Amino acid sequence: MATLKDVQIKIGAVKKTKQITKAMNMVAASRLKGAQRDMDGFKPYADKFAEVLGSLAEKSEQKNLLLAPKEEVKKINIVLFTSDRGLCGGFNMNLINKAEQLIEKPETDKKISFTAFGKKGNGWCKSRDKKIDYEYIGIVGSRFDFSVAANAGQKLIDDFIDSKYDEVYIVYPEFISVAKQQPVIKQILPIPPLEKKEEADEENKPFLAEHICEPSVNELLDVMLPKSIFVQIHSALLETSACEHAARMTAMNNATIACNDMIQTLTLAYNKARQAAITAELMDIVGGAEALKG
Amino acid sequence: MTENIRLEIVTPAKKVVSEDVQIVMAPGVLGEFGVLVGHTPFLTALKTGAIIYKDVDGKERYIFVNDGFAEALPDKVTILAESAERRRDIDMSRAEKAKERALKRLEDAEKGDIDFIRAKSALQRAINRINLAQTR
User: What is the span of the domain harbouring residue A148?
Assistant: First the structure.
């Protein structure tokens, strides 16, 4: 049986752990707020961009290089978004599992390489001997601007045009709520056929149809299509950051609750042991007194 | 009193401007253009440069934009730019430094190289910023 001292030390240790998890919870909460603000700030841009792109696509014959699917898909690049740091529950594992699903699709003769955002995904790729073409560390979870996504996106586009890749996917967590993040896979290259809005925006439609475009629809598309990829990467980065903080917040909250439970059981054990010791001592004294009397 | 048109300038980071204005002038790739209320629907890419608009009081305001698009509708102008800053927010010393850096890179890089193109557009941006800031 554990001695009184042992239990006491253990209680102290758990209390300290609790302090740490509680602090991390609060840090994650405040970072999450920042990340959510960034996400909200980007939304008007992304929405407007999608709207303009959609209306352009309606008019174009779509023969841009980035839109054309390759005849044979042999080389795939997966852009895997994970966090740099751990202690955020199953967050990174969920993302990695999602990416694995993509790899394990029946036709496995494809050559797969990775673009890793975040140390965890990078480490996983290395441990499994996956090929990493680009790695970006120190970005997810901190503050970054649009140029990060633009640079990363440009490299992918260049490689796609050079036929280094036939398809590019991104795997990132979708931020649904603080308690729920959903890993998703999206194809970014070749750009899936742009959705043409059919019913929505009935009143806007005549407007859009009449747009005068400078220089020309196709030239505008040439500029906007690559940018639409940057937009997707940037928003994936923002979501990954928000999700990382949300996941860490939840994980640390659970850890704090677990600490409380442990402290409670340990304190109970401690008190029981203490009680037992006192009882034993009393018995000794009473026993001794009886003996003297006799 | 003329009717006003809504101007929105949006960057990935935030909405820089969202207000009613009298007129907007912007540097399109095929030339400067001005937009008043009732403009024909119009979509264009923008050069790096300055957006000039008159606010409701008729005061001229300048905004530096980099790499963007403008969509004009009869009652609204939306500008999507990778970065946009008001004239008073331009950091002169930073722009000067960027200019020097770009010039140095231009010397080092070979012509036609990707770095060359990048340095050139960086230089363009820096010069535009400086020019705009000097009109303060």
Answer: 27-249
- Check A212 against B41: CB less than 8 A apart: yes
Which residues are paired to B24 by β-bridges? Answer: B35, B53
Low-confidence ranges of chain A (pLDDT < 70): 1-2, 60-63, 105-109, 194-210
Residues from chain A contacting residue B70 (CB–CB below 8 Å):
none
Give dist(CA A64, CA A66) in Å, integer: 5
Q: Is A153 helix (H, G, I), strand (E, B) or coil?
A: helix
Q: What is the amino acid identity at position A175? A: F
**Residue ranges of domains in chain B, CATH in brackets:** 5-88 (2.60.15.10), 91-134 (1.20.5.440)
Closest CA to A150 of A78, A234, A220, A64: A234
Size of interface A-B (CB pairs under 8 A): 68
Q: Is residue A220 part of a domain?
A: yes
Read off the pTM.
Answer: 0.82
Place of tokens 């060359």: B116
Q: What is the pLDDT of residues A233-280, one digit of tens each?
A: 999 999 999 999 999 999 999 999 999 999 999 999 999 989 998 999
Nearest CB partner across the interface for B80, out of A45, A211, A234: A45
Report the complex ipTM: 0.76
In angstroms, what separates the C-alpha of A205 from chain B's closest C-alpha? Answer: 11
- A162: in domain: yes
Task: Assess if residue A6 is contained within a domain.
Answer: no
Domain count for chain A: 1
Cβ separation of A45 and B10 shorter than 8 Å? yes
| Residue A63 within a domain | yes
Q: Is A71 exposed, middle or buried (0-12, 13-18, 19+ CB in 10 A)?
A: exposed
Per-residue pLDDT tens over the stretch A184-222: 998 888 887 766 554 444 444 444 556 777 778 778 888
CATH, residue A157? 3.40.1380.10
